Known about the structure:
Rossmann fold
Amino acid sequence: MLAWAVAGVTLSAQQQAAKKRHSSTPAGSRIHKLEELNWPRIHALERERTLFLLPVGMLEEHGPHLPVGADTLGVLYEANRVSKRVSQALGDWNVVMMPSINYGHGGANQIGGMLLHPGTYGIRQSTLRSLVADVGGQLAQNGFKWIFVLNGHGAPAHNIAINEACDFISESFRVTMLHLTGLFRADAAIQARGEKIKARYFSAAEISSFGMDVHAGVSETSAILAVRPDLVRSGYKTLPDRAGRTLDELREIAMAPGWQGYLSSPSKATAAYGRAFEEWWVDGFTELILRAVRGEDLLHQPRLPDTIPPAVAPALEKAFANDRAFEMKLENWLAQRRKD
């Protein structure tokens, strides 16, 4: 009996060591990774005091200097930081991190009329909408009340799909499912803080020279320098500026022969600004979550982008037509297969 008891203690210690090696959740923490929980543990979570974080990224060309997963890398970093901040603020709540959705809709290559690009791998807008709605709907039907989507990709149709999925789940199941990134971009106070942060690192003349810093430019390059510097190619320091001050100017840049897939001024990027930039996102996401769970109605607040800008509508219509053609090809193939 003693030998078995000793063996049992040893086995238990080995199991505990294995758990520590393979689990990223500290013992006793109220932050959980969904994929690491068994179903009885999930079922035992208090419905009114459990919130879920769903990161949505993208695989998209980000110039010759950044990884195609830049949007995913950034939003995962933010989601992990937010989970800790929210857990500290809501000590009696559970925070559940969901596996990220790594595919979105609409690569920046479409600005220049390129429907396909070797660095971009997305899904149809309808697929993204359904995917976010499917995941949120199952959480809601299992009785959970709080679902927050953190999105790292800026394409208008991509954001609209997430807005629609969140609204559908919130209205159909009487829960709160919020697209935090859309709210973040439309919140005047949060955006004003972002401008102040930028002004600490760059002069007014430099900021003006960046133009619309929307893709693989100074902000995104700075962010990846802060989060994953090993994935930034050193050649970013020699890339010429590609600044546009309007969407029409951005489209002209993207349609020019030899466009390398970035906008703004990646050569001006710094890791210091990237850390401050990422902290701004973490602060804003955390604030929005706490405002929601403490009773503020954010379901009817403005979100950006919420419509297709006219300047990019022609390029997006080509993308939508391509999506429809692909969907029809798939449906026809399935119909033929069923006949066979």
